[in-house]
Design goal:
The complex is a heterodimer of chains A (314) and B (269). With 314 residues, chain A is α/β, with parallel strands linked by helices. Chain A is built from twelve helices and 14 strands. Chain A has a six-stranded mixed β-sheet with strand order 6-7-8-3-9-10, sandwiched between helices. A four-stranded antiparallel β-sheet of chain A has the order 2-1-4-5, with helices on one face. The radius of gyration of chain A is 23 Å and the shape is globular. Chain B is mainly α and 269 residues long. Chain B has ten helices and no strands. In chain B, helix 1 packs across helix 3, helix 1 runs antiparallel to helix 4 and helix 4 packs parallel to helix 7. The chains are: A alpha/beta (314), B mainly alpha (269). At the A-B interface, helix 2 and helix 3 of A face helix 1 and helix 5 of B.
Chain lengths: 314, 269
């Protein structure tokens, strides 16, 4: 059973507060179908305003969907919000904390509201390098990075079955980002599910099993990171002596450019057929750029290329 | 979980509550002292002046300085007392829901297994208990001050609980209206504005009605009018007043109860 399942999920905001002034509603989310399986780290990608936070806020019951449905751990997000929130940890994007409380007081308070112990707190504090002295200070004295660490600890300290993390590495230095990603990996190994939105594609590429990319409230791609990378175009450059190979009809090859003994082309999908054709020629040098999630992402976001990319992905 | 939330809400507001208690204790003690010191002289001066306008202005909001009951009533309706109570009547509901929503701490709280109804109920109980404490502090100070000044025998001390109950009921009804505004907006300023306009207009109607006989009818439209402190100190409780204030409280609370869980919690600013 999926841990998260959305079906035709939509959220529209009316324009203007008064019925007489209402125009076309803003479509923040449209017909979103996503499934996240147990034990997955699922990346949710999209630029600002794409609908990532709206989706997360619907999952936690802060927003009410205008169409479709969503369930978390088998519970409907509209009817069973309490049952969901008992089993979920949440890190909001740009978290706000109670500034007058000390770090320890805040973590005690937020854990107490779950009504169960916080078995992971000590190890999270150690891994994120917060000292006991830090935790005795009021939160108002904390730097942005320390606040983010507190946000991560409060979301994970009670060992939730599902953690929903909105931009979790925001404000963390590279070392802490590394420690955080290792933490996610450990949680996955412990059988927990993690759903996180991010702009940092390298971290998504590193830890996520699958990703969904949304654009203007619509899902444009959802697949495993490996599949997404395999599908995206690589840039190929080959220095060839003698006759050039005929690449006509080779699957996945496009934008072929031959000049001064150098063959340049784009290659998409399986590299086998391309290499088979190339092996007949005398290749002096060959460069195939590794596929990066960043380029796959950008491909989905180039205004005109998005639809084509989505069509290819499907 | 509810107990933790309740304790934390009290703790977070303790400085505000203590400051208001101190302010109301001082204020509650002042007017009986003024009455004991100058009340008779001022009363005689105004009555001998044969100036009805002066007498009207001296009866501000149903209170006066010519009797101990009048002095206590004046202390209740005076802007100083209203402002001190207003910290909890208006400030607390606005800051604890729409204020937290705007800051972003409300979503941290509601990400826990706490229903919006439970949160509203806890906040309401904390606010109501605080207001009961504030009104009690002012009245206790007035009684102690009257005793200290040697005029306590002019007061039916047994009727003080009636004044306390009605004063608390009015404060809690106004607080329930503030909660209604707090759950209806995404930002503090509109919620604060709507609540302040309601409270200030209501207050103004009572004051205008009390000092201008031709416009006495306007005070019927003020909630403040239905806490008739002097009558209460004489042991006269009108059930209509209780029903009206209780009705306003009930409707405002019901509104919040229905609206709060149905509202989208906007992203913090």
């Amino acid at each position: 059973m999926p841990v998260i399942r959305t079906s035709g999920l939509g959220k529209h905001y009316p324009m203007g507060a008064w019925p007489a002034r209402r125009g076309t509603p803003v479509r923040a989310l449209e017909a979103l179908d996503v499934e996240v399986m147990p034990g997955e780290i699922f990346g949710f990608l999209g630029p600002n305003g794409a609908g990532k936070s709206t989706t997360i806020r619907i999952m936690l019951g802060f927003l009410h969907p205008t169409s479709g449905s969503a369930s978390i751990l088998g519970h409907d997000v509209v009817r069973d919000g309490l049952a969901i929130r008992k089993r979920v940890g949440y890190l909001p994007g740009g978290i706000s904390l109670y500034d007058s409380m000390t770090g320890n007081g805040l973590l005690d308070y937020l854990a107490g509201l779950y009504g169960r112990p916080a078995p992971l707190r000590a190890s999270l504090i150690e891994r994120l390098e917060l000292s006991e002295a830090d935790l005795k200070r009021p939160v108002r004295d904390y730097s942005r990075g320390m606040r983010q660490k507190m946000g991560i600890i409060q979301a994970l300290q009670h060992d939730p079955e599902l953690a929903i993390l909105d931009e979790p590495t925001e404000g963390l230095d590279p070392l802490m980002q590394h420690a955080f990603l290792a933490l996610l990996d450990e949680r996955r190994q412990a059988g927990r599910t993690l759903f996180f939105s991010s702009h940092v594609l390298s971290e998504v590429e590193r830890v996520c099993d699958r990703v969904a990319i949304i654009r203007r409230g619509k899902l444009v791609a959802m697949s495993s990171v490996a599949t997404l990378l395999a599908r995206r175009r690589r840039h190929v450059e080959a220095r060839i002596e003698g006759a050039m190979p005929d690449l006509t009809g080779v699957p996945g090859v496009s934008a072929v450019d031959i000049r001064d003994g150098v063959l340049r082309c784009d290659l998409e999908g399986d590299v086998g057929p391309f290499l088979a054709v190339l092996s007949a020629a005398t290749v002096r040098d060959l460069t195939i750029e590794p596929a990066r999630l960043e380029e796959a992402f950008l491909e989905y976001y180039a205004p005109d290329a998005a639809d084509a990319a989505a069509a290819r992905a499907s | 979980m509810i107990g933790i939330l309740f304790r934390r809400t009290f703790q977070a507001n303790r400085v505000r509550i203590i400051a208001c208690v101190i302010g109301l204790v001082v204020w509650g003690a002042v007017l009986p002292l003024v009455y004991a010191g100058f009340g008779q002289t001022i009363g005689a001066f105004i009555r001998n002046s044969n100036n009805p306008l002066m007498e009207q202005f001296a009866s501000f909001g149903g209170g006066d300085l010519f009797s101990l009951a009048g002095a206590i009533a004046l202390g209740f309706i005076h802007p100083i007392a209203i402002a001190l109570l207003g910290v909890m009547v208006v400030g607390f509901p606005i800051l604890s829901i729409v204020g937290e929503r705007q800051r972003g701490t409300l979503e941290v709280l509601l990400a826990r297994p706490i229903s919006r109804h439970a949160l509203l109920l806890v906040l309401f109980c904390v606010g109501a208990l605080s207001l009961a404490l504030l009104v009690a502090a002012q009245l206790t100070a007035s009684v102690v001050s009257a005793a200290f000044s040697g005029v306590l025998d002019e007061l039916h001390v047994g009727n003080i609980p009636l004044v306390w109950a009605m004063g608390t009921l009015l404060s809690v009804a106004l607080m329930a209206i503030a909660f209604g505004a707090s759950v209806s907006f995404d930002r503090v300023m509109p919620a604060l504005g709507v609540t302040l306009v309601f409270v200030l207009v209501s207050y103004l109607l009572e004051v205008v009605g009390s000092i201008w006989p031709a416009a006495a009818w306007v005070s019927d439209f003020s909630l403040f009018h239905y806490v008739r402190t002097k009558e209460l100190l004489d042991g006269q409780l009108r059930l209509f007043d209780v029903g009206l204030l209780g009705g306003v409280l009930g409707i405002a609370l019901l509104y919040s109860w229905i609206v709060f869980p149905r509202r989208d919690i906007a992203a913090p600013s």
